[in-house]
């Protein structure tokens, strides 16, 4: 939340959060986003959280912290969780997301994200694997973004 606010992003403008895998360093900030949505930003618009299989179970376990339970129960009306299958393009709130597997010790994804004419590939905690090739196909480097 600190970085979101630092860069002037309105948290209520975020319509989807994409999770690569369910280790704490990749989704640990999510409860704070939802807490902010309920207590500070007063979110009324839907938010979708999408990620690998078992995401819903991991979130349920994480959010059983007693102080989070009532807040997260209230968030249920605006919160949707989607578990994505690999190598299939999914529509997550108007964003095309195609997850590809990569090894990291958790059910992991490298995400190919397409919105309008822009494509992003994100993968963390991995070495080179062949599934990264289709995820990154057609993606341009940071220096090329201005020309697209």
Structure notes:
With 148 residues, this protein is of the alpha/beta class. It has one domain: 4-Layer Sandwich (Metallo-beta-lactamase, Chain A). 26% of the residues lie in helices and 22% in strands. A four-stranded antiparallel beta sheet has the order 4-5-6-7. The longest helix has 10 residues, at 30-39. The chain is globular and about 45 Å long. The two termini are 30 Å apart. The mean pLDDT is 80.
- Briefly note the structural class of the backbone: alpha/beta
At the first level of CATH, the class is: Alpha Beta
The helix/strand order is HEHHEHHEEEEEH
Alpha carbon gap, first and last residue = 30 Å
Number of contiguous helices: 6
Form type: globular
* Largest sheet, strands/sense/barrel: 4 strands, antiparallel
CATH topology: Metallo-beta-lactamase, Chain A
User: What would CATH call the architecture?
Assistant: 4-Layer Sandwich
Strands of the largest sheet, in order across it?
4-5-6-7
Based on the model shown, name its key terms.
four-stranded antiparallel sheet, three-stranded parallel sheet, alpha/beta, Metallo-beta-lactamase, Chain A, 148 residues, 6 helices
